[in-house]
Specification:
It is a single chain. With 611 residues, the protein is an alpha/beta fold. The chain is 37% helix and 14% strand. It is built from 21 helices and 19 strands. The strands form 4 sheets. It has a 7-stranded mixed sheet, sandwiched between helices. It starts with 8 loop residues before the first helix and ends with a helix.
Length: 611
């Protein structure tokens, strides 16, 4: 065994890189799937980071005073697992369970083991997440860096450039990106292949410092990382690499992306790698004793002070609730995409500017940043118009696999926004958010419910969505009313009800108008405020279906995936009033009437059913 006096740091890291290579090809061959060539190109980068550069405590990688690593090119998961095994975070034996049904080592990284805080694999998202982590370190006053390993193929994704843009403006000097420039994508060469100048010129234009290095030369990598530590701006390392490096018959070969080696190929590859591996005793100098755990989450509460009949938009009430939550904890952070004066996060921005992040019109980066922030113990709210959140749906989808704790608000929902027209109308958002694993979807109809449901979001662990509306609506709830996830409110009922009308948000008020007019004609209907769209209050809705002859759902949303289909999934057979005609500009009242979801439309449907 060679000891410290007999080996240099460069030799030690070269040795470690080849060990990581060996783990990667063995585990993927055992799994009969995976991306070994993408692992091989990044071996020296990973070895240098984990065993020389990053300040980490392998026993407490979940503590906040570690440097952070994000594998944005998530298909290279096997080499990340290998590094964690070599650092002692997991056992080496576990590596051979890669991609198995009962293994935490999934095909792409998910936060099931320490050292992996987020899910990656849908390319182009890691840099935004890293930016959020770096911003969180800054807020916490922790002098640590965030390192993000990017693939050159994913550099074609616009979200990468959104992150580069904002990080440059914010001068996030604790953020380091490393581009594994190995030339080859999945189906053909990448856009710029080995043209490092094309990357450097673009990245510099976004306000980053940039260096170029040989990604297989340990000494050059150390030099690049040392430069990063002295940078006054975010730092971008372009590492020139070869896909499949270290195995001669795989180097720079097209058509090998996502293909594991056969047993015969593995034996051949091992004969090339094993002679390069020596038994070296070396204690990494970058291992630390972390001391700052993530604090337990706070429990929030809210009191309201509205009067029955006050005219208040739910988006305004949402903004007021944020301030009340922010006063209870410095862990509340709010992000907005240049619509804060419409979503009313502006109230929080004015009150807590240090915990408010203007992400500008870049929704994908905004969601990615939020995911990064919440990994560091923050309770993160983000908002935009409901329709624009669809741009970031993949980031939101991936956030579920990150087990992320995000509170998302979509304002300007439905045709009720009026004259701005369909490009600004959120008409698909309930379907999008209902489809997410473990999500909750809340839809308040007045200011009291909006504030208290915002508090419910703050206390929920997972993806939560609140749908707010543009027009003012009357306050119908007393300040003493309580709301909870999975609840509803029966607003009008009698033993003689013939029809149940289930509404949400703006249509609750239309249903109440219809109730008064029908009652005057001797027709009794039950009105339910379905403020929790997911999960539904199944008990109340099923009881109503048993006690009345017909169920009508009415919503300012397309029928696909909305309240009506949610109710139908309970086994009920609702008549669904929803947006079925091409929306366009107009007054809110005109648009609701055209779609048949106003009071008159509800009355027509009730009379049709009761004959």
């Amino acid at each position: 065994m060679l000891n410290l006096a007999e080996v240099s740091i460069e030799e030690y890291l070269e040795n470690k890189a080849n060990i990581l290579r060996l783990h990667s090809i063995r585990s993927t061959t055992k799994a009969k799937s995976g991306h070994p060539t993408s692992c091989l190109s990044s071996a020296e980068i990973i070895a240098t980071l984990f065993f020389n550069v990053m300040n980490i405590d392998p026993k407490r990688l979940d503590y906040l005073d570690n440097d952070e690593f994000v594998l944005s090119k998530g298909h290279a998961a096997p080499i990340l697992y290998a590094a964690l095994a070599e650092a002692g975070v997991i056992t080496r034996d576990k590596l051979m369970t890669l991609r198995q049904f009962d293994s935490e080592l999934e095909g792409h990284p998910v936060p099931r083991i320490k050292g992996i805080r987020v899910a990656t694999g849908s390319l182009g998202q890691g840099l935004s997440i890293g930016l959020g982590m770096a911003y969180a370190k800054r807020l916490l006053g922790i002098d640590r860096r965030v390192y993000v390993l990017l693939g050159d193929g994913e550099a074609a994704e616009g979200s990468i450039w959104e992150a580069l843009n904002l990080a440059g403006k914010l001068k996030m000097s604790n953020l380091v990106a490393i581009l594994d420039m190995n030339r080859l994508g999945q189906s053909e060469p990448t856009m710029f292949q080995w043209d490092w100048r094309a990357y450097a010129e673009r990245v510099k234009a976004f306000g980053w410092n940039v260096t170029v290095c040989d990604g297989h030369d340990i000494k050059d990598l150390i030099r690049a990382f040392d430069e990063a530590k002295n940078s006054d701006k975010p730092f971008f390392i372009i590492a020139k690499t070869v896909k499949g490096k270290g195995v001669s018959f795989l180097e720079n070969v097209e058509g090998r992306h996502g293909r594991a080696l056969s047993e015969e190929e593995l034996n051949k590859a091992e004969k090339e790698i094993l002679p390069k591996i020596k038994d070296v005793e070396f204690q990494p100098q970058n291992f630390i004793e972390a001391k700052v755990p993530i604090e337990p989450r706070k429990k929030y509460s809210i009191k309201t002070d509205y009067k029955i009949g006050d005219m208040v938009a739910t988006r305004v009430a949402f903004g007021k609730a944020l301030v009340k939550l922010g006063e209870q904890s410095d862990k509340i952070v709010v992000l907005d995409g240049d619509v804060k004066n419409s979503t009313f996060t502006i109230y929080f921005f004015d009150r807590f500017p240090e915990r408010s992040i203007q992400c500008y019109i870049a929704e994908q980066n905004m969601v990615g940043m939020a995911v990064g922030l919440q990994t560091q113990g923050f309770d993160v709210f983000l908002s935009s118009f409901a329709c624009f959140l669809s741009r970031a749906y993949d980031q939101i989808r991936m956030a579920t696999y990150s087990r992320a704790n995000l509170k998302i608000a979509g304002s300007h929902a439905g045709v009720s926004i009026g004259k701005d027209g369909p490009s600004q109308m959120g008409l698909e958002d309930l379907a999008l958010f209902r489809a997410l694993f473990g999500s909750i979807v809340l839809y308040p109809c007045d200011a009291v419910s909006a504030e208290k449901l915002t508090c419910e979001m703050a206390n929920y662990e997972g993806i939560s969505y609140i749908r707010t509306t543009r027009p003012k609506t009357p306050v119908i709830y007393d300040n003493s009313e309580e709301f909870h996830v999975g609840g509803s409110k029966v607003l009008r009922w009698s033993k003689n009800d013939e029809v149940t009308v289930i509404a949400g948000g703006v249509t609750v008020h239309e249903a109440l108008k219809a109730y008064e007019k029908l009652k005057a004609e001797g027709i009794n209907i039950r009105v339910i405020d379905c403020y929790s769209v997911k999960p539904l209050d199944a008990e109340t809705l099923i009881k109503a279906s048993e006690e009345t002859k017909h169920i009508i759902t009415v919503e300012d949303h397309y029928p696909e995936g909305g309240i009506g289909e949610a109710v139908a999934a309970l086994g009920l057979k609702p008549h669904i009033l929803a947006i079925r005609k091409m929306p366009h500009s107009g007054e809110p009242e005109e648009l609701l009437a055209e779609q048949g979801i106003d009071a008159a439309g509800i009355i027509r449907k009730v009379k049709e059913l009761v004959g």
